[in-house]
Structures
1.
Amino acid sequence: MAQHIFNGLVGGSFLALVALGLAVIFGMLRVVNFAHGAIYMLGAFLALSMPSFWWALILVPLVLAAGGMVLERTLVHRLAKLDPLYNFLLTFGLTLIFQDLVKWRFGVQSTPYPTPGGLTGSVDFGAFDFPAYRVFVLAMAALICFGVWFLLSRTRVGLIVRASTERPELTQALGINVGRWVTPVFGFGCALAGLAGVLAAPMRAVHPLMGADLIIVVFAVVVIGGLGSIFGSVAAAFVIGVLQALSEAYLDSALVSQILVYLVMAVVLLWRPSGLFGREESPA
Amino acid sequence: MKLKWILLPAAIVFALWLPFGLYPAVAVEILCWALFAVSIDLLLGYVGLLSFGHAAFWGASAYATGLIAINWDWPFPLAVLSGAVVATLIAVPVGYLAVKRTGIYFAMVTLAFAQMVYVIANKWSSLTGGENGLQSVPRTITDNFYFYYAALPIVVLGLLLAWRIVHSPFGRVLVAIRDNPSRARALGYPVHRYKLLAFMLSAFLAGLGGGLFAMGHRFVSLDVLHWTTSGKAVIVVVLGGIGTLWGGVLGAAIITRLEDFLSFSGFDQIGLVTGGIFVLAVLLFRAGVWGTLAKIPARLSRR
């Protein structure tokens, strides 16, 4: 049981990091970044070209943050004043482009990535042995989620970002340049997806479509948690990860564990349409 | 108004000529995608709901049509119609849940439910053939050239249905809901029920297209349910022009012809081209082909 819960939390870590980036960007820009899965995939592929896993862990998020900021300035920003659906469509088009570029360069087969040295063994927790790398992934995800929470709720930067999210006009009126924060926040969200991609590389197959499969699950996760709520998105990611692992272990049905997230989404839509931690939208 | 009486005969002549000018298989494909695109535009352009999961209805109907043709050997229009009915039935629970959300959430919810349908079809291989799909769907009209003319009336009826919906009192209520949901509700219209009905009608049209697609190709693969299929349909609509209805037909012709050209010239990265065109269309060309062309007569008459 503990084994399955642990594996579920590890699986939920990837969902949580991607959902966190998605939620942070959504909070600031009101944009749902479809390309977030593609950026996760790019993170994994960039990790392949880095000298070592540890370099990748530092450099890949930086590269993708820079790339994300360029993307925001050159493309996303142009549609900022229109219906957010246009940016959803734009980033969907970018997803197709990124995917096909990677397919062109690397082919469609999946590439293995060795478990980084120093994390190959297992960690002894008394009654259970867990693979060291998975423990590392979970610890990293927990650390980053905590870090983002700390950043948002306990620092001045977080204060500004939260204020700009809640009341952009009022914050602007108080003399804070809201527009200045949009680009870094977009880059930060992309960095989180890239980091998740690097962490996923040694555990999962590095494949051009790895992000596309993930992003749809993440969409369901953020509908469950409520996209407006960063805490809700992360919590839902971990819960879904655990439920998936448990259903895989005990129900012995690949179908159920794969559609579970959508079933949970259906129940949430029925019971609390705005998501477990989401706020009511204006009635429509 | 006079322009309409020039365009309509021109469109009829063009539709009748199409299989002479193109490979008949490509012409059939354009017909199917035209219906699919119009079904999405019905929701996006007239209710303001972007469905990113219409592959569920297109694909479910393709499978249903294929299975009916294989197992019961019904005449193909009946098989296609039954497939569309199956798609409509699937749209009931999906639509009921999805219309609880609007905007970007609606897109995410429909995408997620479509992925669920995809996973189920993939795992339920005793029915759907899993990765192999449905092979050799029987068809009495074997030649694609003649099949085009057999399929054309069904597509035209589907397009007329869409036109009728948009220009009916029901369609006007949908536009009212799109523009101001609170006011529509205050006027006593059951907003959710209207949206659900529009969603079901849209799924029916997508199902007609999907069923014809299955008959046209004479096989059904899992691709028909994949999210990229939903995405391609949205690309077609945006390129043709959102909220123009006929723009979707134009977009279908352009994209299908383009993809045929690309695959014929041995270029595999089709997503690179369609994705690139789509990004440019969203950035610079949001009125779409039809929307841009439709503005020309007004501009000329102003002079």
2.
Amino acid sequence: MKSSITKLTGRSIRSFFGRYLALLMIIALSVGLFAGLKITKPAMAHTAGKYFDEQNFYDFQIISVTGFSGSDVETFGSIEGVSRAEGSRELDALIETGDTIAAYKLVAMPSYINMPSVVSGRMPEAANECVVDDEAFTEEDIGTVLTVSPDNSDTVAYGLTETEYTIVGLVNSPLYLNDDRGTTMLSGGAPAGFIYIMEECFAGDVYTSIYVTVDEKEEVYSDEYDELIDLYEPEITDAAETITDKYYVLTRDENAGYLSFEGDTSIISGIANIFPVFFVLISMMVCITTMGRMVEEERTQIGVLKAMGFSDGSVMWKYMLYALSATAIGWAAGFFLGTWGLPAIFWWAYGSLYDFAKISYVFSPLLAFETLAVALIGITGSTLIACSREFRSVPARLIRPRTAKKGKRIFLEKISFIWKRLSFLHKVSIRNMFRYKQRLVMLLLGVSCCAALVVTAFGIRDSMIDLGELQYEEIQQYDLEVSYIAGYEDRVQSAIDGLPGENHTLAASTERVRLTGGETMRSVQMLRFDTEDVSGFWNFRNGEEELAFPEEGEALIGRKVAEKLDLNIGDTVEIQDSDFNAIQVEVSGIFDNYIDNYVVLSSATGADSLGQWESNTIYLSTNQDTHSVSEELMGISEVSGISFVEDSKESIDEAMECLDYIIWLLLIFSGALAFIVIYNLTNINLAERSREIATVQVLGFYPKETESYVLRENLILSLIAAVIGMPLGTLFHHVVMDKILIDNMYFPEKITFASYVISLICTVLFAIVVNLFMKRRVNKIPMAESLKAVE
Amino acid sequence: MSEFIKFSHVSKIYKTGEVSIPALTDVSFGVEKGEICVILGSSGAGKTTLLNMLGGMDTVTSGEIWLDGKNVAALSKRKLVEYRRHDVGFVFQFYNLIPNLTALENVEIAAMLCENHIPAEKALELVGLSDRASNFPAQLSGGEQQRVAIARALAKNPRLLLCDEPTGALDYETGKSVLKLLSQLGREKNTTVLIITHNQAIAPMADRVLRIKSGRIESCICNSNPVSIDNIEW
């Protein structure tokens, strides 16, 4: 008995192949999107993790002003649980290539930790060979000779044993995951790139820093990894203390590339949390209508089978088999295409920022099980719902055709001053809209979701795209940040005073501190000023309101860290510096700040606990070329670094450009969603109303009139849905932005008016395209056949 | 008097894959203007095919169909729509009213297509259903629905009224009243009416009786003395 039912299933699939395919596709699409988006962030993290593992990325970096000896390295190596400790040597030097000269970071080729990976060419084998930064050089540069410039200081001249290096390969380094190459004392600003040379090319035997790896391994960017680091940190710190009193222990979190990789990819998890849910919801609706339609079309067959003595179960099995086979194929195709394709697409989108390795395929058995279970439950449920209605009827009733859905007046007809004004055919369309409530709801829901997703996509862009401008033009209004050894303000200031052009300065004391509020702690940048007037350099405001400079014992804090620590105005917060000196201050204001986290104090605050105010930073606004200014100031030996606001802005802008690809991806998916929903519903509509459509054709409707008779309601509903989608999208956008968890960035939640307009247009355009597609089908309905005696 | 409708060697072959099924073979006949013509034949004889081709709903395989000097078989798709729109009124066995429109609206939708239409209210009045104007089809009996369908066909003021088994789904008395209505209205407006039926008994009411068997014309007989439907029993 089962086998004849199986045969019938096969026949149903063949005779309605388009419908079977549509069912299969929607399952594939939603499973693919769900699984693909969910796996993208883990896949990217895994790719980075694998790369870090292969290159033996450090767990701790210990830096000392005085440097380390070989025995210092051994001290760390002998700590229990430490797998390896390796001394590292670095030197910034001016390098000549052909007729250009630029500052590069020269790094000794490590033997184990932080190994660079070869992109092309080979590793250096002799003292006069080098491998270079893949970002700064191209394959054509292999074979070129780099010369250490004679303009270099004595430190460089005596620090290197060779002056000429032939490029033998291009490499990536785990230390420089993104395009941030750190800062250099030379030539002002950032080095042009890094160059690895053999260790013996460095004169002397002093290491600039020590890298340490521990035995235990944990998934990168996981809480477990953070716990592991917390576990080892005291021992490392103790060891460092026995060697020198001037040291820093840094973790991976202090590595710019490592940190920004997590931030830049976290937008995906925001999207992954909301988009797939709607796809699953909508595809479930599509399944219910598709199966419902199928069961209804075959009700005669169901009646006959039941009359012949087949049990409900075995007849239902036919539909189950139909649906389950579509689910199985759809799931398999969707899951593997999604989990393979989406991470690859995102990786490609991020390629301009991170291209250190090929994306690895991550198979998550849990995710596979979850998606399969949801798909199966969804489809089984939909089929049961669809079947139950028909199966309750006795065979005799099933064999007779279902009576057509009765016509009904709608509410609007009672408002006669509107109703009267409508043309006859518009009245018909409006009444039809309300005739099939289920379809009305589904079309509204599907298309408004689509519109909402488009709004969300554009909203994400709106909220992020001008982050650099907001931070580096409106808040940090200066051009250069000059850091120097505390106490040398006069020296730097007088050098600035000697510069040509107009230069304005503001001195500050800056330090990395821990901010604790309640149970939560965050590392933030503390700024202390001995003047209340910081205008022109820093702009502390809350929306339109300009914030008053904090009094003694008060602090202004940035919006993101205020949110993270759940702080409001009037709350008390603890600041602790690197020497464990602590002070309690009252929050007097929360200011708009988008990148990094700051706490702002007056110089009077904490004079007795944090130490007497002494500036170590000068913010400089200049009308001169920033690079030439920087070059001048770098000549002062007490100046330890200069950073360019312009550069920071550029690098953030570059990261945000990746967003455009993501927006496109979301637009394509939203379009597909609208297409599937409208196509599916219109198809059912056409099938159910073929008699009616044939009738108006016989009456002499022109093709255009027939099309609009059937499809006008789609367009009206799509338009209404698109409008509903606008507030819905605002809500989605809020949820997505809320899920983007980056500690050192604050995204202002905003959607521009233009985005709403574009989203509305996009959605209506999607609807129009589907309708154009459906028009052909409307006119293909065969008149004579549709009007034949009832099936 | 020249013939209003003229079929000339019309054949229709339905092709499904490899199989060809002839529905009509070499059909030739004529009907004069204002006549009521009954087409008789058993089921599958090709009656409906003939009517559909005359009504511009189906194409011929070969042959010509002339209506008042116009070859319907040679019309373009666009012209066929115009032809259906202005010249033809259809009445079907299963009424084919639009369920979501009231009786009046079902007539309106047809009336609005033609310039010189009969107002929908007037058409409903003609079939005696003015009082049911605001009812939906589901609220009407079979006979009432068929009368609405007739009103819809008449409202276009067609030159040709084609009825495919108009009484097929109706009981005896209702069927009779519908036929009476059709013949009465046809004669009043001098509209040519073609009625398909398999009920031999109603043949005497027609001006002309066409018998079809297996796709061929068996006979085409003029009845110079049609009987009123009231005097026919079956």
3.
Amino acid sequence: MNLSLSEEQEILKQSARDFLEEKCPKSFVKQMEQDEKGYSPELWQEMADLGWMGLVFPEQYGGSEMSFLDLSVLLEEMGRACLPAPFVSTVVLGGLPIMDAGSEEQKGKYLPEIASGKAIFSMALIEPELGYEPTAVKARAKAEGDSFVINGTKLFVPYASVADYLLVAARTSDAADGVTVFIVDAKSAGVKVSPLSTMAHEKLSEVVFENVKVSKGSVLGGLNQGWPVVQKAWEKNDAAGCCEMVGNFQWVMEDTISYVLDRKQFGKPIGSFQILQHYCADMSTYLEGTKLAAHQAAWAVSEGVSTAKPVAVAKAWVNQVTATFFNLAHQMHGAMGVTVEHDLHYYTTRAKTVERGYGEGNYYREVVAKGMGLG
Amino acid sequence: MDFSFTEAQEKLRKEVRDFLEDEIKQGLWKPSCDAWIQDYDPAFTKRVAAKGWIGLSWPREYGGQGLGHVERMIVTEEMLRYGAPAACHWFSDRQIGGSVLQYGTEEQKEYFLPKIIKGELYCGLGMSETESGSDLASLKTKAVADGDDYIINGQKTWTSGGSFINYVYLLARTDQEVAKHKGISEFIMPLDLKGISRIPMVDVTGTEAWNDVFFDNVRTPSKYRIGGLNKGFYHVMEQLAFERSGMERLMGNYPLFDGLIKFVIETKYNGKTLAHDDVIRQKLAQLQVEFEVGRLFMYRVAMAMEAGKTPTVEACMSKAYATAFEQRVANFAVEVLGPYGLLWMDSKCAKIGGMAAHSYLGSKGYSLQAGASEILKNIIAQRGLGLPA
């Protein structure tokens, strides 16, 4: 057992923090909230040049073959900076499934494009009726000669409006798990993207597929073999989200401490009052618990050991504590914390977004319940 | 970063499990909540000692195994999982030996450590007094030097160890003239010295695990004083990290949690098992998630100790968090059992061995022992987060 970062990870963490503090101040976050694309292509290219997009891919595809745990260090810093960029959607929802389930040809084509910063990916999975089971996938892909034709509606697709490719989960058989994942060019005829207005102003979209024709070669992971691909991606996405939350909570904790030390009422810093001290102690407990659980999940993904339980524990924990953590933070910031002038709201809204993830608390508690032998 | 255990650690865990399962199979004892602090069984302690599992993190020259804090945590975790009657040696293994190792003279190490390792020294804690609880440094028990001895007068309360302890760890004032923190020393002394008497305190569960201990002109040879004169309060603050961060703060009522899980799997209501009731399974899974995070908190403290740090703040966080978890387990068990949750252990209709009612009451003390949660949160805020005292 070893709960510390390696020396290389410490260096990566520091360089990521320095880079993001310079390139991603809150004025930039604010600007991107209003921006149509929601990210800066120039900054994206700089991130690619730093090797961030290819971090976990094999060298032959332009990556640097580092681990998911190394990636989690970057994710924490991105969470701390509230970085507006399609990083998780491209690397975790696009790149990793291709790396895990893709054919040689698919890996050779797409992974170098991701690593170099050329291609943005996203995953089109969730549908209007929601649901955690393969049966919730109602969009259909019908075989027609050498092609498939996709019809259906997907919701909450991150950064769909700027994506070059979408991994689309569609039904290819009436069997319950008869789902196939397709790599679809987002500019294909019949793909209609409509951005949704959201709490954190991040770029989630509705994507309607109307007779979208794709080749057989675009199947990822085999015909009717898509559900395990989706599940794996979803698990990694939520593990990544928990890591982002570590950075998010860390910033909020530091900011809250500095606020209660600075703000004076009744002639003393409000941080000298015992009730606020206990609130801070509680927040710190939630933060440290999140760190441990998220690191354990990232480690499990990294090592390829059984990931279901560690990811479930981390995400269920995050979903359990987030609301209380932010209630305490806002309470201590007083009215200032609910204005747009203060930066706290960037964290409140992004945390709520990550909390949704693919699996809600009840979904992950159900995973834990099964592991406990509750049937 | 690595969240796995070594092969040797996994092997140790399995050995402890096999040993305990075999003991249960032989009918030597039954798993119970709080067994680490309330179930005294000198014969069990001797059998554990024979396995080398008491003082296993201490140096070989004193009879230990030179293993680490993680190994000790593995052993204690399994003892708690099975609710084993380890109260005779628990305190000595947890903090008395560590104190002697850190602050004792060579002679004291050679005297105390082998006795603990052999499972013969059962030590209770004499810290709290009737007027000195959270404000421990205000304690009044006095030790006045008299030649080579100290004469000790005063009263301690909540001394653990029932009628089994043969030694007591004592904090006493050795200098009246200085600030309250600066005049306290530590003693580890046999209980058969003339002038020591004790009266059991009966807690709301009916247990007599704690005592009032009276010291009436007790002539105590100075060889029983541990560590620097008047340094006792500073020593104990470090030692409390050991006392607060053990797995017993998370798993004190684990046999109830485990029993509750089995109960909902086996019990049917309206044609389906309670485990298939959505509310019950969600709530139990939530408790399991909280347990898993608590377990990480505990191993984090062990890792810090392994690195030679005194994880004061981390230990406070672990204990405040974990004891609140234990209280939620007890309360939820009573809720699931309905009126059965009220039944005491000796009741013929009791479910899960009557552990729920007992633990509901017994767990009230969890957030008080070894530092009330409010004091722990003060420490987290002030020493951990830098807020003003």
